[in-house]
Design brief:
The complex is a heterodimer of chains A (368) and B (259). Chain A has 13 helices and no strands. Chain A is mainly α. The radius of gyration of chain A is 29 Å and the shape is flat. Chain B is an alpha/beta fold. Chain B has a domain of 176 residues: Rossmann fold, CATH 3.40.50.300. Chain B contains ten helices and ten strands. In chain B, strands 5-4-1-2-10-9-3-8-7-6 form a ten-stranded mixed sheet, with helices on both faces. The termini of chain B are far apart. Classes of the chains: A mainly alpha (368), B alpha/beta (259). The interface between A and B is medium-sized, with 26 and 33 residues. Bound molecules: adenosine-5'-diphosphate (ADP) and magnesium ion. The site of magnesium ion has 2 residues of chain B, from helix 1. Chain B: This is Phosphate ABC transporter ATP-binding protein PstB.
């Protein structure tokens, strides 16, 4: 006769286990011991946190090794390493964002910072604002306009060139020698130091327009040298993952190849292509070196990329820090530089979010 | 409209590899012809030569003649695009265009070629194509939803509707049911039976019962071994192939005693 079996108190299926609260106890102990050790050599918050973390990991692993056995101890060790590396990787990022936020917010919130240029702002105004304790004059408007225009033109150049190149590579080349050469050159271009791109654009326009030509457009050409390989690479990957079945389905309907590419392949890949382009923009908008040698500096608004020097956010930061407007009172310049840095980071973040949004908007629709 | 296909001395290559050797066959108008044979014997390869889809693969080429009502598909100056708009194709895996709605999928052949079509003509074409594919009742309320939201069987019928919408003379189907469940398979088989009133239908299948159910004539392909070319072994009325085949290897294959 079958009887219902009652559950055993101590399951034979489990091994020794540490009580659930063990990590908290170990953590508490680690913090206290670390504090005690720190007291011996002199207190320091960073070293304290680091020591606590190491002691916590060591305590956790040892206690587990004693009670729970080898496998669980190794599991805990690996977990500690993974989490530890993650925190180490996160540290610089958080620290950078924190520093920029703390230093940048006052400047960014100063009235007129976003709306005015540096036109007419000299050491006199900066000295006055320090001595009278009035808000810092001058702003970033001209640099913001310059950055946006230069990047826009760089995008206008890079996207057609990059996209058409990737279309050639994926749809037409059939892996011939020429395409291998292009792929190799694109890979080399990905690694070009940005200053070299700047020098290339300078030299190119020195040949065409005469030496010393510095305009926003020259800068856009320099940036597009950096952008094109990124666009080619990301678009190429996106076009490659469009299933061949879709191309064949289109051919089988009697659709020509170029129409198939235009109406089937690109629309299917457009979400990936667009987010790749957005990320490429984010990548070049913070470039400094090529802009220094191609667009020069400017303190007033210039909306014509084809004539005259043009400011941009990175060069604005660079000049404000390296050559403060008022050499005797560099603080207003530093404040403007940090605020511009914050603005640049916000811009890049916005572009990254934009990339996700674009990917979502263009993604092939599913659902019933 | 429906046209017959006459194939003579056809050799099909992938680069230097001879995949299918010396096929001579006549596919009658308004009939269903089934291609059967073991995997790798070149059924798909041969089928794709019938609408010049074979040459889409780099290095792939063809020797011989394929006549569509007397016009050689492979003579000089024939545009493969023209050929393909007259000989449609349905693939093994349903492949509706993921970026398009059900309606746009049906209209794809027309719209992608940017032929002008009025809204009322388009509506009529969508309805008639989907009705011919026995799909109209199931999707008429959600024509603007994406085609990828349909079940596998519905997607395959959508692909058939898409092929019908360009009003071809011939429809080629490469194992159209192999990714489908038995109910959807039955729906497609019924559909094939209706399609032969208007079209020349050629179907590749691994399912012997299916060949017996849907086809008027059956062609048996075989291969001597890996790396050898596939060959057309026997072509006859379906009943003959299954009940009274002329070749020993055909009999072995259809009775399941293969290998
Ligand atoms: N794209 C291709 N490139 C080279 N060889 C191929 C390709 N597709 C098929 N083949 C070869 O052609 C032969 C016939 O293949 P296939 O027509 O797919 O057979 P089936 O459809 O009868 O299973 C096989 O030997 C296969 O390896
Ligand atoms: Mg096949």
């Amino acid at each position: 006769m079958a009887t219902l079996m009652t559950e055993r108190k101590r399951s034979a299926l489990t091994q020794n286990r540490l009580p659930k609260y063990t990590p908290y106890v170990v953590a508490g102990a680690a913090i206290v011991v670390a504090a005690a050790l720190m007291a011996l050599v002199g207190f320091n918050v960073f070293a304290w946190a680091l020591l606590s973390a190491i002691l916590f990991a060591a305590g956790n692993v040892t206690s587990s090794a004693v009670v729970e056995g080898r496998r669980k101890a190794i599991d805990k060790l690996a977990t500690s390493l993974v989490v530890g590396s993650f925190l180490v990787a996160l540290l610089p990022l958080v620290s950078v964002i924190w520093t920029v936020l703390v230093n940048g917010i006052p400047g960014l919130l100063t009235p007129g910072f976003l709306g005015s240029s540096m036109n007419g702002v000299t050491g006199v105004q900066d000295n006055a604002s320090v001595t009278n304790n009035t808000p810092v004059m001058g702003g970033v408007y001209h640099a913001l306009v310059g950055s946006v225009l230069i990047t826009l033109w760089a995008t206008l150049i890079s996207v057609p060139v990059g996209l058409l190149t990737s279309i050639y590579l994926v749809e037409y080349s059939a892996g011939n020698k020429f395409s291998k050469v292009i792929t190799f050159l694109v890979d080399v271009m990905t690694g070009i130091p940005s200053i070299v791109a700047g020098l290339f654009a300078t030299a190119l326009f020195a040949l065409i327009m005469g030496p010393g030509t510095k305009t926003g457009f020259v800068a856009a050409v320099a940036l597009s040298v950096l952008m094109i390989p990124v666009v080619v690479r990301s678009s190429e990957e996106m076009l490659k993952i469009v299933p061949n079945e879709l191309r064949e389905a289109s051919y089988a309907l009697g659709v020509r190849k170029w129409r198939t590419i235009l109406k089937i392949v690109i629309p299917t890949a457009i979400s990936g292509i667009a987010s790749g382009v957005t990320l490429a923009i984010a990548r070049v908008i913070g470039e400094t070196a090529p802009l220094l040698v191609t667009a020069g500096f400017a303190s007033s608004i210039n909306t014509n990329v084809f004539a005259g020097w043009m400011a941009s956010l990175p060069t604005f930061i660079y000049t404000q820090i390296m050559t403060p407007t008022s050499p005797s009172n560099p603080d207003p310049s530093a404040q403007r530089a940090w605020a511009a840095a914050l603005l640049l980071i916000l811009l890049v973040m916005a572009l990254n979010f934009g990339a996700r949004l674009v990917a979502r908007i263009f993604a092939p629709k599913t659902g019933r | 409209m429906s046209k017959r296909i006459d194939v003579s001395d056809l050799h099909v290559y992938y680069g230097d590899f001879l995949a299918v050797e010396d096929v001579n066959i006549t596919l009658d108008a308004k009939s269903v012809t089934a291609f059967i044979g073991p995997s790798g014997c070149g059924k798909s390869t041969f089928l794709r030569t019938l609408n010049r889809m074979h040459e889409v693969i780099p290095g792939a080429r063809v020797e011989g003649k394929v006549l569509l009502d007397g016009d050689n598909l492979y003579s000089d100056g024939v545009d493969p695009v023209t050929v393909r708009s007259q000989i449609g194709m349905v693939f093994q895996r349903p492949n509706p265009f993921p970026t398009m709605s059900i309606r746009d999928n049906v209209l794809a052949g027309v719209k992608l070629n940017s032929r002008r079509i009025s809204k009322s003509d388009a509506d009529a074409l969508v309805e008639s194509s989907l009705s011919s594919a026995n799909l109209w009742n199931e999707v008429k309320d959600r024509l603007d939803k994406p085609g990828s939201g349909l079940s596998g069987g519905q997607q395959q019928r959508l692909c058939i509707a898409r092929a019908i919408a360009v009003s071809p003379d011939v429809i080629l189907m490469d194992e159209p049911c192999s990714a489908l469940d038995p109910i959807s398979t039955l729906a497609i088989e019924d559909l094939i039976n209706e399609l032969k009133d208007q079209y020349t239908v050629v179907i590749v299948t691994h399912n012997m019962q299916q060949a017996a159910r849907v086809s008027d004539k059956t062609a048996f392909f075989n291969i001597a071994g890996t790396g050898k070319p596939g060959k057309l072994i026997e072509f006859a009325e379906t009943a003959t192939i299954f009940n009274n085949p002329g070749e020993k290897s055909t009999e072995d294959y259809v009775s399941g005693r293969f290998g």
